[in-house]
Write a structure and sequence with these properties.
Blueprint (H helix, E strand, L loop, with lengths): L1 H10 L2 E4 L10 E2 H14 L3 E4 L2 E2 L11 E2 L1 E4 L1 H11 L1
Antiparallel strand pairs: 1-6, 2-5, 3-4, 3-6
């Protein structure tokens, strides 16, 4: 994930790891995978969401809570969200 987010920061685009049938809550862990990358993307002027809500606004209910992730530039994340509804 770190390499993919680095590429997204340098070249643009979107990184997605949505929930799947086998992982309905998502596969990435909120506290030590999604939150750190969301903070970096947010500080760079991008957007990081899970289920349409900012990842950094999610109140964790457990140390190993999992979540889906969509992060990248604001306009491209909004385009993904528009097409996923």
């Amino acid at each position: 994930m770190v390499a993919d987010v680095h590429r997204t920061l340098l070249k643009g685009g979107v990184f997605l790891y949505p929930p799947t049938k086998n992982y309905p809550e998502g596969k990435l862990r909120l506290m030590y995978e999604a939150n750190p990358m969301a903070m970096i993307i947010d500080q760079a002027g991008g957007k990081a969401v899970a289920d349409g809500n900012p990842i950094l606004d999610i109140v964790p209910n457990g140390l190993h809570q999992r979540t889906g992730v969509i992060l990248g530039s604001v306009d491209q994340v909004d385009a993904v969200l528009k097409h996923s509804s």
